[in-house]
């Protein structure tokens, strides 16, 4: 199994543990939604680095992540006007990813 596939499988495993999460596809890539609203998916825009994950997140939380973890979290201009952050999957540990997906779940569930 390729490394990118194993990372997506980890995202799938963690995402599907949360209540009311549905697996779907977006532009041919796997995605995970809550109530039909996107929560996370691989970042597929050409401005995203390979093996990045897009996570919907509160803008205040995004600012904190970008300032405290710039090696792990980033934001290309293409995504700047959306409440998302991109995650370098090679830099994030399982515990941090799980916590981020929980915060994304809460953000999407509340909006």
Work out the helicity level. Answer: 25-40%
Name the average pLDDT. Answer: 93
Please tell me how large the radius of gyration is. 13 Å
Distance between the termini: 36 Å
| Number of DSSP-assigned strands | 6
Neighbour order of strands in the largest sheet: 1-2-3-4-6-5
The SSE string, one letter per element, is HEEEEHEEH
Number of helices, where a helix is a run of at least 4 consecutive DSSP H or I residues: 3
Low-pLDDT stretches are none
Structure description:
- Helices cover 36% and strands 27% of the residues.
- The protein has helices at 3-15, 59-68, 94-110, and strands spanning 21-26, 29-34, 37-42, 52-56, 73-74, 84-88.
- Strands 1-2-3-4-6-5 form a 6-stranded antiparallel sheet.
- Strand 2 and strand 3 (37-42) form a beta hairpin.
- It starts with a helix and ends with a helix.
Brief sketch in words of this structure:
The protein is of the alpha+beta class. The chain has helices at 3-15, 59-68, 94-110, and strands at 21-26, 29-34, 37-42, 52-56, 73-74, 84-88.
